[in-house]
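Issue: ligand-bound run for uridine-diphosphate-N-acetylglucosamine - logging full I/O for the record.

Environment: standard queue, default settings, no custom constraints.

Inputs:
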Amino acid sequence: MSLDVLHVVGARPNFMKAAPVIRALAAAGFQQNLIHTGQHYDSRMSDVFFRELEIPEPDVNLGVGSGSHAQQTAQIMASFETVVLERNPGLVMVYGDVNSTVAAALVCAKLRVQVAHVEAGLRSRDRSMPEEINRLLTDRLSDLLFTPSEDANENLEREGANAAQIHLVGNVMIDTLVRLLPRALEKKKTGFPERYALVTLHRPANVDDPEVLRGIMNSMHEVAKDLPVVFPVHPRTRLRIQEFAIATEGIQLCEPLSYLEFLAFEAHATVVLTDSGGIQEETTFLGVPCLTLRKNTERPITVEVGTNILVGNSVERLRSELTKIVDGHPKKGSIPPLWDGHAGERIAQRLRKTFPSFPASALAAARD
Ligand code: UD1
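Outputs:
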């Protein structure tokens, strides 16, 4: 076994979670490798994030691309197994809840390589969400469980995880936001409508069924009567809008935005309408009202203490919550404990204690 840490990323939401951990581990002297599975491959879904978040070039890109869940997961497993056998890492770090996360964790568990899961313990309790399956399995397979909030610890304990495995470190995605918000606001200072709703939509449950997607887009047309609607469109959603021939007049569609551009739009928004997990967290941190187009969330803390409200697919609920916001009475929230920009450092400190013999990178470089 080598004493390297190997990080696995694959899809857009992984990048902002891995970036602060890679930085903190570099500062703590860990020797590291980065593997990109290629689950997201468009430059707007991947390359631009590496540049803006200053993530090192991946050492290997598995180039797996799109496919059914089984195909994608199986292809990542087959290719990643070869990498693990060649590189023999001391620890593999996986992030969030995407197919790349569970695929890498399963390979490591079978090869008896230690796995750390960053953003462990989140549960929507909705097994119709592919990410919920990924979360349950990844946590079950992982040796170290780094959690963003107390509710995640409770979920893991209830499921029988050993308390010694669980480490409440805070929210790594917020580390990236804290670091880059000033840069985002500096880079994009103008060009925002005075008031607007920012929309993101990509969950299969919302976009893959023509009637559901049509209903949501009708709601967006309703919203557009009150506020300009800015909608950076995920590739999957764009495909569906075209396939189902859904009308988009009156809504400002654009290509997926870069991290810095999106953050600037989010920070200035009157309201964000989303089905994303990470955006529920970012808006809570920013104090921007968020209406989540889902019936449940794996991030309940954003509803309990943050600015998030679940509106499901009810047009009436969306309308009534939107009216309050437009009338100047949005839900007020606060920032959860440990969402402070230092979660990555807490992970590095914990790993130093757990693996005191991991070499400093300078030593490793000299050895190579
Ligand atoms: C994945 C994650 C989801 C995450 C989302 C963020 C899983 C199960 N889902 O969903 O949790 O919130 O990423 O974006 O891992 N496509 C492109 N270019 C790309 C990537 C995808 O055009 O670079 C298109 C393809 O048509 C593809 C579809 O988007 O089939 C879906 O991509 P996929 O990676 O399967 O899942 P996402 O919906 O992006």
